[in-house]
Every structure is written in structure tokens, then in C-alpha cells.
Known about the structure:
This protein is mostly helical. It contains eight helices and four strands.
Amino acid sequence: xxxxxxxxxxxxxxxxxxxxxxxxxxxxxxxxxxxxxxxxxxxxxxxxxxxxxxxxxxxxxxxxxxxxxxxxxxxxxxxxxxxxxxxxxxxxxxxxxxxxxxxxxxxxxxxxxxxxxxxxxxxxxxxxxxxxxxxxxxxxxxxxxxxxxxxxxxxxxxxxxxxxxxxxxxxxxxxxxxxxxxxxxxxxxxxxxxxxxxxxxxxxxxxxxxxxxxxxxxxxxxxxxxxxxxxxxxxxxxxxxxxxxxxxxxxxxxxxxxxxxxxxxxxxxxxxxxxxxxxxxxxxxxxxxxxxxxxxxxxxxxxxxxxxxxxxxxxxxx
Length: 318
Ligand SMILES: N[C@@H](CCC(=O)N[C@@H](CS)C(=O)NCC(=O)O)C(=O)O
């Protein structure tokens, strides 16, 4: 018999965690350009700084130079039975756009019959007052592709010449690392936990090797898959290692992954997207099936300002 699941609707018969599909998948610019033109000032991102999926959208917004064009608000990291809420606190605040108390209000304003889990990130259209999209993959792609000259940076996080390898690696990272830590943490049977755990550490070993000769996943250029991997790595030692029982090794035990993590953390616009108070309080407090005492550990000591030593790998290949 399997243990009680954190999300009973997202559990298979073997005790494996099967994530729900994103519900809102409309696109900015073409082909829905009349509906949702990609213009400055019209869209708002609702995020949690605890959430790895939402943080990726914030990172893409920052590195693309869309801070002025797309506004952001941050929910309270503590999610209770009413879901994500807007309250005043350190690093989060009230909803400046709609005055919502709960993120669920955005979902029900868009679809009164919505029945799934209320998740971040959400890309909100201030003009139509609806959710455009709640898939972080779609949102990252739209922020990269669709804002043209509105984006202050011309960096391309999805270079055409790297496809399809980039998409394949992103999918591999999603399955084994980003969602792999959740599959380990939310498993309700030993067998499913073991499977997720082994796949996760096999993937980390493979990525460690890959990063021994390349500064970033594809050489000198930072692409979306790097930020995707970063969002899990930066949370790993603080929460996944303990809370999700991903404890074969820590990221500090992998010389290349650790240096790579520090390198990305120290990239302009990134450190401010990482909030360990939100990250730790969210995971340890909110998943009460996994941590019923809701005690938030005080450690580990982490130093993201240490020298990363990765510059030497630049220009070696790619
Ligand atoms: N859209 C993402 C998932 C987003 C997601 O699950 N976000 C979490 C926070 S990390 C959330 O909002 N959870 C709300 C809940 O569990 O009720 C995906 O399907 O891959």
C-alpha cells in the first residue's frame, strides 16, 4: 500500500508522481497576434521566488531586458489550503494589478470552471484581464522570441543552430532533474522513489562530465537549458537534498556542476531572483505530508559568492 500523497490527483497506481498538464496555453504575437500582441506594459507575471518553474520565467525576463516591459509580483512563499496568496512580507507583497487576495482569483476570472492545481507562474493580460499562459516553457519561449525591439537585450536563448540538440537536452533535464527531484520527493512508494533517485543522479553524473570541457551546456553561450538546470541546482543543497531525499550527493560535491552553478548565479540579473528564505520556508512548510512538523532547517551554509573558476573553460570548444 502506498503512503498518502502530497497531491492525490497526481499519483499513479505505483505511487509515482505524475504532474498535471498546464491549462492555459495561448500565445503572444503570431498566430494570436490580434488577441495578445507582444507589446510593452500589457502583461504581468505572477510568480513565487520559491518555485523553480516560475523563477525560470523571471530569469528569462531579466536576461532579455524585459524588466520595464513586463511587470512582476511575488506571492507569499507559504501556501496554505487556500493556495498561493498575496500578502505583505519580506520579498513579496499585495497584488498591484488586480488587488487579488489569492492567485486562484486569476484562474477563476479566466475559467470559472477551473479544477486543477493553482500554479505559478502565470502570465496575465492586464487589458483583457485573463491568464494568457501558465506554462513556464511557453512563457520563456515567448519572452525570448516575441518582444523584438521591446527587449533590451538581443541575446537568443534558443539559437536555431543548436536545435534539435538543445530541445532534447532540455527535455532530458526536465524529466530527470527538474521534475526528477519532485518525482523522488513526491513518490509514495519505495520503488518509484528509487527509480527517480537513480535517474536523477545518473543525469547529474552525465551533466558533470559534460561541464568538464564546456563552460555552459553548449559551450560559451548561455541558453535556456542552462537556466532550466540552474533553477534546480540552486535549490538542490538547500531543499532537494534533505526535503526530497535526493541525498546521494550535494551539488557542492560535484566540482563542475558547483562551479557552473556559481558562475550562473553571479551572472548579471540572477542573484536577485534567488531567495533562500522563500525557497526553504515554502518547501519545508507547505509540503506537510512530507514534513508534518513544518520545521525549517537552519542550514546548510552556502556561499554563492565564491570564485567559480569557470572562465578558463571559455573558448575551448562550442
Ligand atoms: N507549470 C509547471 C508546474 C508549475 C508548478 O507546479 N508550480 C508549483 C510551485 S513550484 C505550484 O504552483 N504549485 C501549487 C500547488 O501545488 O498547489 C509544470 O507543469 O511543469
